[in-house]
Write a structure and sequence with these properties.
By secondary structure, this protein is an alpha/beta fold. The chain has 15 helices and 15 strands. It has a domain at 34-261: Type I PLP-dependent aspartate aminotransferase-like (Major domain) (Aspartate Aminotransferase, domain 2), CATH 3.40.640.10. It is 38% helix and 15% strand. A 7-stranded mixed beta sheet has the order 1-9-8-5-4-2-3, sandwiched between helices. α4 (73-84) runs parallel beside α5 and α11 packs across α15 (396-413). The chain is globular, with a radius of gyration of 22 Å. The N and C termini lie far apart (45 Å). The relative contact order is 0.16.
């Protein structure tokens, strides 16, 4: 009998059973007005437009013209993929170290994801690593600010402008982070955000798209929320394109609105504690924190990460991470599955089989997906350890405790 595969879990379910000596994101701290807003939804008989209130408040907070609320981050990016209206077989350059939600919309629209490598020593791409991937079929660059570290966007935008390409952001882990004084999600044509339970501005679920482009915003609402339907007089709805019904629920909007009212203070605390912890970790021989570039004014750190030098220790990174978890850092582990060319096995299977859109045409060439197609990212993740339980409840004492645990494990395993 075939063994049943273990399903992936998310949010509080994924964190259930974690133990340790440091704060965890669950149970979540919810903004003090959440109950008030939820009561408004119920007592109004669902007639209050809490979604619109949240959209307007989030747009004001970011300083953008439009916020379109969605049920999650994956639907937010899927709405964008649909709204752009590229052709099957068109190429979207996308960061290779990310989550499946980044690429799902591309796959469903029959676009072809192209993964550049990352910069050495970090989780992010750059204009330098993106440039070799641009072809005549490239239509857009989808940049991921992994762990909340914002990519160096000015050179990426300049590169895209030279080639006539759209740039948009996956800011799901970077809510209210700042790049050269500008907020993540305002650095390109559009952006997707996450308000899923475990994220920095976590609700029960939720996400949104932000943009200053009026035409694109209307297209997102039409394709992503109105199911591609137009009203024809004397008939009703006619679905002129295959659209989606990715609308944020009213109660989710109520919690998101409450979380928005406290997010700035939490992000400021995360930034301060991530920088302190990075300084403490940097003093441990053989261990390096993720570098925080000078252009990142505010690090909206959702996930704290370190790299170990394999020649320095007797154990592997996997063993090191397991010892960190046992010593009190909840959720410490590796993130090899973040490497999309290796994690999305169906991509290589379809490419090898010539399954549409990898058939020629519409594809213009043959594609392959594996860890070896992004060797810098592959090698980095071999020795990368992170804990996504890093949260806004950290204090200086928690940072000192975390650093002491890392030092203890490092000293115990040093060659």
């Amino acid at each position: 009998m075939k063994r049943q595969a273990q399903r992936a879990t998310y949010g509080a379910e994924a964190a259930r059973g974690l133990t340790g000596k440091l704060p965890q994101p669950f149970p979540r701290t919810i903004g003090p007005n959440a109950t008030k807003y939820l009561r408004e939804v119920v007592e109004s008989g669902l007639t209050c437009d809490m979604v619109l209130r949240f959209e307007q408040a989030f747009a004001r907070a970011l300083g953008v013209r439009h916020c379109i609320a969605t049920p999650g981050c994956t639907p937010a990016l899927a709405c964008l993929a649909a709204a752009f209206g590229f052709e099957p077989g068109d190429e979207i350059i996308v960061s290779p170290i990310t989550d499946y939600g980044t690429v799902q919309g591309l796959v469903k629209e029959n676009y072809i994801p192209v993964f550049p490598d990352t910069e050495p020593g970090t989780v992010n791409v750059s204009a330098r690593t993106i440039a070799p991937c641009i072809t005549r079929r490239t239509r857009a660059i989808l940049v991921v600010h992994k762990t909340g570290l914002i990519c160096d966007m000015d050179p990426i935008n300049e590169l895209a402008q030279r080639h006539g390409l759209i740039v948009y952001e996956d800011a799901c882990q970077a809510a209210f982070g700042q790049y050269k004084g500008r907020l993540a999600g305002t650095l390109a044509k559009a952006a997707g955000f996450s308000f899923d339970a475990e994220k920095t501005m976590g609700s029960d679920v939720g996400g949104c798209v932000t943009t200053d482009d009026d035409e694109l915003a209307e297209r997102i609402r039409f394709m992503g929320q109105s199911r591609g339907a137009e009203i024809e007089p004397h008939f009703g709805r006619k679905h002129v394109v295959p659209g989606h019904a990715y609308r944020m629920p009213q109660c989710t909007a109520a919690i998101c609105l409450a979380q928005l009212e406290t997010i700035r203070e939490e992000v400021a605390q995360r930034d301060c504690m991530a920088r302190l912890l990075s300084q403490l970790i940097a003093d441990i021989p053989g261990v390096k924190p993720l570098p925080i570039p000078d252009y990142v004014n505010v690090y909206s750190c959702w996930m704290f990460g370190i790299s170990i030098e394999p020649a320095t220790f007797r154990c592997s990174a996997e063993g090191f991470a397991q010892q960190l978890a046992e010593a009190g850092i909840p959720g410490a582990g590796q993130g090899k599955y973040y490497l999309m060319p290796a994690a999305c096995t169906f991509l290589d299977e379809n490419a090898r089989a010539g399954v549409y859109p990898y058939s020629i045409p519409p594809a213009s060439r043959r594609y392959r997906y594996s860890a070896d197609t992004c060797p810098t990212a592959r090698d980095f993740l071999e020795n990368f350890i992170r804990w996504s339980t890093f949260c806004g409840a950290y204090t200086e004492q928690h940072c000192e405790l975390a650093a002491s645990i890392v030092r203890e494990v490092a000293d115990r395993n040093r060659r």
